[in-house]
Design goal:
elongated, about 450 residues, binds ligand G3I
């Protein structure tokens, strides 16, 4: 037992000797590796920088870490414990205007020092040429959906005016916002405060105004829903409503969604959505509403507006059956495809072929409510670079399809809200998403740049 203990002690001593070197006076001392001292980054560009450090005596090899986190919890690909047999290394393929951190260790014969000091470096900010969506899109309006509450806000206001030359009321011109009830004489009670605010703002800022929407099954005031007069009285109320609204804004509102979403989803070729208007006014209610709007303003452009039109072929068929009738009656000017889409669907080719269904008929095209979901399966808790890139590609595809439309059929491409956290998508679907062109800090996203790139290719 005693013999074994002596053997262990001797072994420990020999190991100790192996990690020592002889000093000039012949005494064995422990040779610890000194930590290198990292220098400030040099040659910083948009997407690269040069990391360097002071030499450690007797050391020819270093180990370098580069991270976007000061805690080095993750590493830039290819830069975790990377061998560098030099005193510097150029780190490239980085993102602009982004902070990175690096540190280095000395290495000798299987032994490694502790970390050097950590250096923080921020890549240069891309100085993109100052531009605005409305200036890039020379042959069509770039629209934005707006709520009156935001137009007094300086930040919103600045971006609305800089980027957009067309406006759609996200909610303020829907029937529930304008029509407050029916009085005891059967007269309609109006509140024009919200809709006037939008129209006044647009006029003051020289913007095109797209009215949205005269007739929509999801915006029916209770008094109308519960109206117990005859069908003919109901029809007359609708005629009065459309006449009053269109007349009030005659010469100011440039176009109207007269009827919104009148065709059922997954419809066969003649399936109307079951709505109060269908029930009370019959299948030609759409035609009647267009006619009332046309009677009130001969010059305003009249649109039919719907969603899923770029890929649901049964719905396309059903919608165009209705539209072809409206064309025969000469009461329609254009079709709105809402464009609530995902970053991976629908494909560009189907957006393109669906758009041709409009231009082929000689009608104006409005991509009327663009937003691009990136988290429809609720798989992400934050917006990653990959998601941003996919979204950019989809926006670019949509804008490029729009831009390729012959000028005679172009009207407007409208974005359904300014910044991500304003979007209806989040309350509607109950999970996080980032569907718009500006982030929550009002900064332009990759999707914004995709819009611009589509117009410059
Ligand atoms: O005005 C009330 C407010 O007083 C209340 O405090 C708040 C509490 O939730 O609700 C407010 O109303 C909401 C309104 O948006 C304004 O924020 C409604 O509940 C909400 O239903 C409404 O949602 C709108 C939705 O249409 C229904 O009108 C969305 O903002 C709007 O983006 C969405 O837009 C539609 C298009 O018109 C047609 N195409 C589909 C698109 C998305 O659904």
């Amino acid at each position: 037992m005693k013999k074994k203990s002596i053997y262990i002690v001797i072994n420990i001593f020999l190991t100790f000797l192996a990690s020592c070197s002889t000093s000039s006076n012949g005494i064995q001392i422990l040779k610890e590796l000194s930590n290198p001292v990292a220098n400030d980054a040099m040659a910083v560009t948009l997407n690269s920088f040069n990391a360097s450090w002071q030499p450690v005596e007797g050391i020819n090899e270093y180990r370098l870490d580069v991270s976007s986190a000061s805690s080095f919890s993750t590493f830039i690909e290819g830069y975790e414990n990377t061998i560098v047999k030099d005193l510097q290394k150029t780190i490239s393929n980085l993102k602009s205007n982004t902070s990175y951190y690096y540190r280095v260790r000395a290495y000798l014969d299987g032994r490694i020092s502790s970390n050097s000091n950590t250096i923080k470096v921020t890549t240069d900010t891309e100085s993109l040429p100052e531009t605005a969506l409305k200036l890039e899109a020379t042959n069509f309006f770039v629209g934005i959906a707006v709520n009156p509450i935001r137009i007094g806000n300086t930040k919103y206001n600045e971006i609305y005016q800089r980027e957009f030359n067309s406006i759609t009321a996200e909610n303020a011109m829907k029937m529930r916002s304008i029509l407050k009830g029916i009085d005891s004489n059967g007269s309609l009670i109006y509140d024009w405060s919200q809709s006037d605010a939008i129209v006044d703002y647009a006029e003051a800022n020289d913007m095109n105004i797209h009215g949205h929407a005269l007739i929509w099954h999801r915006s029916i005031p209770d008094d109308l829903q519960n109206f117990n007069g005859t069908d003919e009285e109901f029809r007359a109320l609708i005629e009065t409503y459309i006449t009053d609204v269109v007349s009030r804004y005659k010469g100011k509102v440039d176009s109207w969604d007269v009827v919104n979403e009148a065709i059922a989803d997954n419809s066969t070729s003649t399936t109307f959505r079951q709505t109060l208007f269908l029930e009370r006014m019959g299948e030609d209610y759409i035609k009647k509403c267009f006619q009332y709007a046309r009677n009130a303003d001969a010059d305003v452009k009249l649109f039919y507006n719907d969603y899923n039109m770029t890929f649901d072929q049964d719905k396309q068929q059903a919608v165009f059956n209705v539209i072809d009738d409206l064309i025969l009656d000469n009461v329609i000017d254009g079709v709105g495809y809402q464009m609530h889409i995902n970053s991976d669907f629908p494909p560009k080719s189907s957006i393109q072929s669906a758009t041709e269904l409009i231009t082929q008929r000689g009608l104006l095209v409005h991509f009327s409510e663009l937003d691009v979901r990136t988290n429809q399966n609720n798989s992400f808790s934050q917006f990653t670079d990959t998601m941003a890139l996919r979204q950019k590609i989809k926006v670019k595809e949509v804008v490029s399809v729009y831009n390729d439309i012959p000028n005679a059929y172009k009207y407007a491409l409208t974005i359904w809200g300014l910044k991500d956290d304003d979007s209806w998508i989040i309350p509607e679907y109950g999970n996080m998403d980032w569907p718009l062109l500006f982030d929550n800090q009002f900064m332009k996203k990759e999707a914004y740049h995709g819009f611009v790139e589509a117009l410059n290719n």
